[in-house]
Structure formats: structure tokens, C-alpha cells
Design goal:
Keywords: Membrane, Transmembrane, Transmembrane helix. Pfam families: AzlD (PF05437). This is Putative membrane protein. Among the domains are: about 30 residues; about 40 residues. The radius of gyration is 20 Å and the shape is flat. It has a two-stranded antiparallel sheet with strand order 1-2. Helix content is about 75%, strand content about 5%. The chain is built from five helices and two strands; from the N terminus they run αααββαα. Helix 4 runs antiparallel to helix 5.
């Protein structure tokens, strides 16, 4: 099969999985436990995505300017900076570290 058939099949599966969410009864979604589970899963997924994007490049573990950018953004968060400023601090830190010669 062509690659386009696989892409089309993936689109159909993604659409059907989103559509199946509408079939869940409201009484299940309104429970406080479901809200806690959804919030916890969201935080866990975001943290794992951040870790993978910071410390991995392909199949390798790397230590580069992304770590400095993450630390600078974390400090900005601890200082209660607005989100846009946190992103800008991380970007500037990465740029300065790369300018200083860190890969």
C-alpha cells in the first residue's frame, strides 16, 4: 500500500477516536475523580514531552543549550513571570548559550 493510504487510515482512526468521546455519558465526565485524572494525565504528558524534547535528539541523550533554556524558563516561572515572558527568557537563554559556543 502507498504511504497516502496509511496517512488516510491514520486520519480516519484519529477522527473516530475523537468522535467516540461524544459517546461517553455526561454523568461519567461530571464526577470529580474524572477531573482529577484528566488534570493529572495532562500534567504528566506535558512533563514527559518537555523532558524528551530537552534531553533527547533522535536516539541519543544530549546535553546542550536546551537545558540552559529550560532552567532559565523554570527560574522565570518561579519568579511568577507571565507566560510570554517565560517563553522569551527561555529563547534568549538558548540563543545566548548557542552564541557562547554550547551546541
Amino acid at each position: 500500500m502507498s504511504l497516502w493510504w496509511w496517512i488516510l487510515a491514520a486520519c480516519v482512526v484519529a477522527y473516530l477516536s475523537k468522535l467516540s468521546g461524544y459517546l461517553v455519558p455526561a454523568r461519567i465526565l461530571d464526577k470529580p475523580r474524572m477531573g482529577r485524572v484528566a488534570g493529572t494525565l495532562t500534567i504528566g504528558l506535558l512533563a514527559s514531552l518537555t523532558a524528551v524534547n530537552t534531553f533527547a535528539s533522535g536516539q541519543e541523550l544530549v546535553l546542550d543549550a536546551r537545558i540552559g533554556a529550560l532552567l532559565a524558563a523554570a527560574i522565570a516561572l518561579l519568579l511568577r513571570a507571565p507566560f510570554l515572558l517565560v517563553v522569551m527568557v527561555g529563547a534568549v537563554a538558548a540563543a545566548l548559550l548557542r552564541l557562547a559556543g554550547m551546541p
